[in-house]
Amino acid sequence: MTNEKEYIDRLIQGDTEVFSLLFSEYYPKVKCFIAKFIRSDIFADDLAQDIFAKIWINREQMSEVHSLNAYIYQMAKNRVLNYIKSNTVRSIYKSSVTIVESESNLEEEFIARETQLLIELIVQKMPSKRKKVFEMSRYQGYKNEDIAIKLKISKKTVENHLNIALNEIKKALLSIGALLY
Fold first, then answer.
1. Cβ contacts of 180 within 8 Å, gap of 6 or more
2. pLDDT digits over 53-79, tens only?
3. CATH class as words, domain 4-93
4. Which fold has domain 126-180?
5. Would you say 24 and 7 are in contact if contact means Cβ atoms under 8 Å apart?
6. Residue-range domain boundaries for the chain
7. pTM above 0.70, yes or no
8. Cα radius of gyration (the chain)
9. DSSP 3-state assignment of 171?
10. SS3 for 92-143, per residue?
11. Are the C-beta atoms of 23 and 68 separated by less than 8 Å?
């Protein structure tokens, strides 16, 4: 480009031919410049395109530009710095989220194990028939009718045993709920 001021003025006016010339001359250089810093041709391509899109969108504000070369490379430098900052923030965020999630998962697992142990203790203290009904229903997966047949009791008695067992467990869990949550 021989007369930069003329090119800048024509660019400000929206001359697409000048923009095409600018793009053809600077795009490969800018992409190469960016790729040296971020070590990714794909992202360098995206960032270089962003720069030229910004030039076109903000062309009316270029009246103070005296050197296209300096202006474009300053934009490229700023874009690279923003990209690096954003990736750094993103990676710090991801690692902190991973730590929080793993801590949260450990805490949830601990609470689940504690709750399961409490339930097992409550079940062990139940009268033998209620304990047997609960274990067959919840641990062995039997249906109420099958439990009634196996234990030679009525289905209603099975339901009563289960209701009482579940209420005991619920009552015990609610009484220590503040400790678990």
1. 111, 114, 115, 173
2. 999 998 888 888 888 888 888 888 888
3. mainly alpha
4. Arc Repressor Mutant, subunit A (1.10.10)
5. no
6. 4-93, 126-180
7. no
8. 36
9. helix
10. HHHHHHHHHHHHHHHHHHHHHHHHHHHHHHHHHCCCHHHHHHHHHHHHCCCC
11. no
